[in-house]
Write a structure and sequence with these properties.
Length: 230
């Protein structure tokens, strides 16, 4: 069943890429397995899925340790707890959610302990909702400058979470604004700053996100089913 779900999502992604005149491999699918057991991740991996995302740091740590694969690429996409970064720094490949200098500093510190570079995306609050994390667009310049001094992180772009709406067209301006923010900071590229990635779009709005330039789509329920919080 999971393979069929993955095929359906890839078909949607390919159609959106075709509509936008983009190559299919321009966009990565991150399978978000929050609350789901390891055997479901194993099934997805067996079907060819390589990128996996988690919202909770403890769950990410457990799954990284227990999935027997050197090919899996792990993404931390949820709220950061700086005191727990030490538990994931040895293995995590991407962190999508830093939005403060203290986040960048702690990631850099923990990556240095393992002598490895971690890819990061700055989380920008594109919906301007108080309950959502992320920096303001006006904070991005200073964060990029600070990241440049962090030897063990590579700043690759931005992540944004759009409003949850019924009509995906309603959030197109939010995705468009994040792409413009990325484009407007290309002059900052160099060294460990390589702004090429946009993590935006989920199950309901992935087509619009791809049309507006997303390079990473985060999908959970449409692959693994409804989450179990009990």
């Amino acid at each position: 069943m999971i393979k069929e779900h993955l095929d359906e999502i890839h078909e949607r992604m390919h159609l959106a890429c075709d509509k936008a005149g983009r190559k299919h491999n321009d966009v990565k699918l991150i399978a978000v397995s929050k609350t789901k057991p390891l055997d479901m991740i194993q099934e997805a991996h067996k079907a060819g899925q390589l990128h996996f995302g988690e919202n909770r740091m403890q769950e990410l740590q457990d799954k990284m340790q227990n999935l027997e694969s050197d090919e899996a690429i792990w993404h931390m996409i949820g709220t950061l707890q700086t005191n727990k970064l030490k538990f994931i720094a040895e293995r995590v490949d991407w962190i999508h959610s830093p939005f403060k200098q203290k986040h960048l500093s702690e990631i850099n510190k923990r990556a240095a302990e393992h002598n490895r570079v971690i890819n990061i995306l700055l989380q920008v609050n594109i919906s301007e909702e108080d309950q959502k994390s992320g920096c303001k667009p006006s904070d991005v310049d200073a964060l990029i400058d600070f990241a440049r001094s962090c030897e063990y992180i590579k700043l690759c772009g931005f992540m944004g979470i759009a409003e949850l709406v019924e009509n995906p067209e309603d959030v197109r301006p939010q995705f468009k604004a994040l792409k413009e923010l990325l484009d407007n900071h290309q002059h900052k590229n160099g060294g460990n700053i390589e702004l090429t990635e946009l993590s935006m779009g989920m199950t309901n709005d992935l087509e619009v996100a791809i049309e507006e330039g997303s390079t990473m789509i985060r999908v959970g329920r449409a692959i693994f089913g409804e989450r179990n919080y009990t």
